[in-house]
Amino acid sequence: MKLHGYFRSSAAYRVRIALNLKGIAAEHAYVHLAQGQHRTPGFAAVNPQRLVPVLEDGDIRVIQSLAILEYLEETRPEPPLLPADAAGRARVRSLAQIVACEIHPLNNLRVLNYLTGTLGANEDAKLAWYRHWIAEGLTAFEALLATDARTGDFCHGDTPGMADVCLVPQLFNARRFDAPLEAYPTILRIERSCEALPAFRAAAPGRQPDAE
Amino acid sequence: MKLHGYFRSSAAYRVRIALNLKGIAAEHAYVHLAQGQHRTPGFAAVNPQRLVPVLEDGDIRVIQSLAILEYLEETRPEPPLLPADAAGRARVRSLAQIVACEIHPLNNLRVLNYLTGTLGANEDAKLAWYRHWIAEGLTAFEALLATDARTGDFCHGDTPGMADVCLVPQLFNARRFDAPLEAYPTILRIERSCEALPAFRAAAPGRQPDAE
């Protein structure tokens, strides 16, 4: 199995955590987004969407991080990243999607570049945008955790799963842009549970060979 | 089963199509987003994230449209909206996520309001933003369809699935903002396959009781 990623891509970071949790030793290819390596013809042949992550498993190629997580869950089910019951699975997926569909898409590099480039937003306006969408999403995420008895040491129960896999990279991003996090005590408690696990720590951006 | 939606929410539109394809007669509750009904305390009790759609199935409540689609697939598997093989399932999910994680999050109402409100973007800049992210996403979507033999009458084979369920509402949105679509012939061909089916037609925004 081979993962095309970038140390600071939070979508690739999600997949790194999942691979570690499942004990899969993948080969890693590094695509330097800030240097535009994703826009080369060579990488377009790997992924026409020119985004990371891309997972290759033999001749099967999967793009989009949540699709990759579901693929890993279906083909390497142990240990599971989704609970067994349909209601629990729906809850974990909806938490993961608050990050993947509501926060991260608004704050990734190409969007920030559009804001400061095409729209001429200054640095303060860019930071305010970033923090606004972090706050919108994490406020909902915290409410969903704090009001539900299924929240445990992790987002759902006492083992890490797909929601935790998405949450931790989003918190890393939030700190990069100095977004305040003190309003989310449940989230921060769960982050500490995650950071206690080698699978999460080894996936951190600063621990990757392409880190700067 | 009860769906909280809004006629013009493309995430709710996805769920309406899926319910119709699976032959599920759900009760509908209408949340008027443009009038701010999602910000009332009553609706916050239904969904702390204050977004539609929300699906209620007995005492199970599911938010986030892709999580709802997966929940329906797991609890009402016939007819399936995902293929049987892991590679095919991954492909369909990644297509769905190009819409749900790359295009739609950048173009929904709250984001456009931030652009024109907080950032002071004018109408032309807002439209350019909208069309830019439509073009980025649909260009990748078209490339993934046009270069893959698994594309059939629909995005994956000859029966409608999760990718089609996400694509059609996105095209409705694109037309609302006059985004050009002629560069996507495969997408337009598949849209015609979808529009031939009553399940898609009956889910259209203009056919809903809360349509204006």
List keywords for this structure.
homodimer, 212 residues, globular
List the helices and strands and how they pair.
2 copies of one chain form a homodimer.
Chain A: E1 2-5, H1 10-21, E2 27-30, H2 41-46, E3 54-57, E4 60-63, H3 65-75, H4 86-107, H5 109-116, H6 123-146, H7 162-176, H8 185-195, H9 198-201
Parallel strand pairs in A: 1-2
Antiparallel strand pairs in A: 1-3, 3-4
Number of E-type strands of chain A: 4
Our estimate of the beta-strand percent of chain A is 5-15%
- What letter string, H or E per element, gives the SSE order of chain A? EHEHEEHHHHHHH
Beginning-to-end CA distance, first to last residue of chain A = 25 Å
Please give the share of residues in helix of chain A. Answer: 40-55%
Count of helical segments of chain A? 9
What's the average pLDDT of chain A? 95
Measured on Cα atoms, how large is the radius of gyration of chain A?
17 Å
Largest sheet of chain A: 4 strands, mixed
Chain pair sharing the greatest interface: A-B, 46 and 46 residues
Helix/strand-derived category of chain A reads alpha+beta
Oligomeric grouping of the chains: homodimer
The low-confidence parts of chain A are none
Spatial order of strands in the largest sheet of chain A: 2-1-3-4
Coarse shape of chain A: globular
